[in-house]
């Protein structure tokens, strides 16, 4: 941190993500209203001390005219946000196309698009070109706002080309990249037509620079060139994802994998696992609010005499919602004594609603829910309440608090914060978490949760039965484990560790260059 009048200045941080954490609505030619959406990343950064963070990203709206762009830029500046303006065509090709149609399913083991291979192949290159162009547009905005000493933290699969663009502009920039999704096995990544170019750009492999020493290598006698190269840390939720990334680089690019990362002709890119967390205090505080307490009481009365099971997901194929509901059906089939004593509340926020595959998923889920409710419902009660909508934060906290069993059946999930949020709200109830072994959270909450393979409907159904009848002392023990993890490995902790690791890496390298 730079000093000013004896006081250390806060570390400046530029957070670059595809979307800004705001919803922008145009009210007039030069007026906008903005709503800050408090997602995981926002609350993570709000809690980080000694950091002066600004966001750079797309505001999610097309603003073709200069008057509108100027007004939006001004309004966003008050929220410490800086917009990247993307036109409709680039959003179509880069965001809907390459990011959501290609990288998202591939990174979640759903493969490349199936519908028309030839058409996909023909459009693939133009989508990849748009992806690179869009990443360069993000880089241009970062470069306009970058000051010496800033840390630049790039987020997610939308911006894998960004480290290279930034490095091309300024090789001394401190750059970190974090992937929120899984990084798949190298055998999956191999199927991507742009597999090598994408990996190389993440590694910034054509960098002219020298080896960056890992922190734990303490031999200060090793010599480095006096100039300090671009620092890139690539980080993932779990060691498995980090390992997959390294093995993709070794198998596809033929580079050397080391315990610290990937080495290319003496240059090392650090690869590490920094698992995300939540702001658990925010949930604890919410549960103390009178309005939330009233809501908890209402829900408790509403479902009196029945155990409450809960699913909260974006309506996405990776979340395994049909698999979850089918497992619940099997449970009801095989445990008739539970039929009027349990209810499953499935809250699913619609997402990417203009994409046919997502529309198909919605209809499929509705059809299964309708069938099960027809089969096991009575005149006064149905076994599944399915809502296609988002809940506000306080309603969500109340729901988590009254839940006996939470069901997370993701087919693949980078981490899954819903499982953390449920645990944070279970101080009183000590409910059971049934968690997919394919969610990153299985690696942190595995000892407290009941881990399941979501594809194995029988196993999930048996776990539901076990969870509902689990003895109180076992519930308490499992909950204690998970609660300790969720309240100590917080979002703030995650962001602070990342920023300080990146800084320490740079300081360490600079110290060594002075030896
Ligand atoms: P997501 O796929 O969005 O995130 P998740 O981690 O579960 O998945 O986070 C979802 C967030 O949205 C949670 O904070 C949850 O409360 C909220 N949410 C979901 N459904 C909701 C509903 N119906 N109403 C209100 N809120 C709802 C991506 C990756 C994850 C990774 C995160 C963070 O796919 O694997 O954990 O980023 O890195």
UniProtKB/TrEMBL annotation:
What Gene Ontology cellular component terms go with this record?
A: cytosol
Q: Name one GO molecular function term.
A: trehalose-phosphatase activity
Q: What class of enzyme is it?
A: transferase
Keyword S-adenosyl-L-methionine: yes or no? no
Per the record, the similarity remark reads: In the C-terminal section; belongs to the trehalose phosphatase family.
- Please report the organism this UniProt entry assigns to the protein: Dendrobium chrysotoxum (Orchid)
Q: Name one GO biological process term.
A: trehalose biosynthetic process
The answer to whether the entry has keyword Nuclease is no
Q: Which UniProt keywords apply?
A: Glycosyltransferase, Transferase
The molecule here is called: alpha,alpha-trehalose-phosphate synthase (UDP-forming)
EC number per UniProt:
2.4.1.15
Full protein segment contained here: 101 to 615 of 1007
């Amino acid at each position: 941190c730079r000093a000013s009048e004896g006081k250390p200045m806060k570390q400046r941080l530029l957070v670059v993500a595809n979307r800004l954490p705001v919803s922008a609505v145009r009210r007039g030619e030069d007026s906008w209203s903005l709503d800050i959406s408090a997602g995981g990343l926002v609350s993570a950064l709000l809690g980080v001390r000694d950091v002066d963070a600004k966001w750079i990203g797309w505001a999610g709206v097309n603003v073709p005219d200069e008057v509108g762009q100027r007004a939006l830029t001004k309004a966003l500046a008050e929220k410490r946000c800086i917009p990247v303006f993307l036109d409709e065509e680039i959003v179509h090709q880069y965001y809907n196309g390459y990011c959501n149609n290609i990288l998202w399913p591939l990174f979640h083991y759903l493969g490349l698009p199936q519908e028309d291979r030839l058409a996909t192949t023909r459009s693939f290159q133009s989508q990849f070109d748009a992806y690179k162009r869009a990443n360069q547009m993000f880089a241009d905005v970062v470069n306009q706002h970058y000051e010496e000493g800033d840390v630049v933290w790039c987020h997610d699969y939308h911006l894998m080309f960004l480290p290279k663009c930034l490095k091309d502009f300024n090789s001394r920039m401190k750059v970190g990249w974090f992937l929120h999704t899984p990084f798949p096995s190298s055998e999956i990544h191999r199927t991507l037509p742009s597999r090598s170019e994408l990996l190389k750009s993440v590694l910034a492999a054509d960098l002219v620079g020298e080896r960056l020493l890992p922190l734990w290598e303490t031999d200060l006698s090793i010599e480095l060139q006096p100039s300090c190269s671009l620092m890139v840390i690539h980080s993932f939720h779990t060691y498995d994802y980090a390992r997959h990334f390294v093995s993709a680089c070794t198998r596809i690019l033929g580079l050397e994998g080391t315990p610290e990362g990937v080495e290319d002709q003496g240059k090392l890119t650090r690869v590490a696992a920094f698992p995300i967390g939540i702001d658990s205090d925010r949930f604890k505080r919410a549960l103390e609010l009178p309005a939330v307490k009233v809501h908890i009481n209402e829900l408790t009365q509403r479902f009196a005499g029945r155990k409450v099971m809960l699913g909260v997901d974006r309506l996405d194929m990776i979340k395994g919602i049909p698999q979850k509901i089918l497992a619940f059906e099997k449970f009801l089939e095989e445990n008739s004594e539970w039929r009027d004593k349990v209810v499953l509340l499935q809250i699913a926020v619609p997402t990417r609603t203009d994409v046919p595959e997502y529309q198909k998923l919605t209809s499929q889920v509705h059809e299964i829910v309708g069938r099960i409710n027809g089969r096991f419902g009575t005149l006064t009660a149905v076994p599944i309440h399915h809502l296609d909508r988002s809940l506000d934060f306080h309603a969500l906290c109340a729901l988590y608090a009254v839940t006996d069993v939470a069901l997370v059946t993701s087919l693949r999930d980078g981490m899954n914060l819903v499982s953390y949020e449920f645990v944070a709200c279970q101080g009183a109830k000590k409910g059971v978490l049934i968690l997919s072994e394919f969610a990153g959270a299985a690696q942190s909450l595995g000892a407290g949760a009941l881990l399941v393979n979501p594809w194995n409907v029988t196993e999930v159904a048996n776990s539901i039965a076990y969870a509902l009848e689990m003895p109180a002392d076992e519930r308490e023990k499992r909950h204690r484990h998970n609660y300790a993890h969720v309240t100590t490995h917080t979002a703030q902790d995650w962001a602070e560790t990342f920023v300080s690791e990146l800084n320490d890496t740079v300081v360490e390298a600079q110290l060594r260059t002075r030896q």
